[in-house]
Design goal:
Length: 231
Amino acid sequence: MRMSTLAASLSAVAVLGWSGIAVASAAPPKCTDLNGVVDANQICQIQVTDPGYSVNVSYPVDYPDVNPVFDYVKETRDGFLNVAKTPDFRTMPYELETTATEYGSVAAPRATRSLVFKTYQGVGGAHPTTFYKSFNWDQGAAKPITIDNLFKAGAAPYPVILPLVQAEVDKQLGQPVTISPGDGLDPSKYQNFAVTDDSLIFFFSQGDVLPEAAGALQVAIPRGPVDAMIA
């Protein structure tokens, strides 16, 4: 009986020991893991300079959903470096510049925090490209918000959203440039967004809803027309 008790005790210690190791190894990723430095404003600054390329990436280290943010920054940086380090006959250095802007809302039905990355990338093509990536967080429920769960089940927000987005795009570009219904009513085109108390802001990378020549677009629409549909 004692042997059985001892064996059980040793098994428990082993499990706890391995569990402790697992917990320790699952520590949140840090700015230093990306060879970055955290400045006085709690912004991770990642800078790489080489005769053939330059990298400048910055993002806040206190965003609640740290793992996907870290993974995105690492993926963006590493993808660029894989291309930039390839020998070629470039006439000018390649360039990666990624910045992050924060937004927030405390208006009902939930407090939110948004983090939007804007990346400018030049890798020798005829024109550099600009693209966006957003992360949104439900402060109360402590979980991510995506375009798929931003609105109530069964709601139909996009027929309301499209005319508002179209009007703002026309205003920004100074002329009518039609967004096709196939794009304008497609939820996947709105996956990069931020929420404030009075606005929904949509971020369209080059080529998302208009030809690439139109550039990247940041379009804010009032929350009022769709507020009752927000989950």
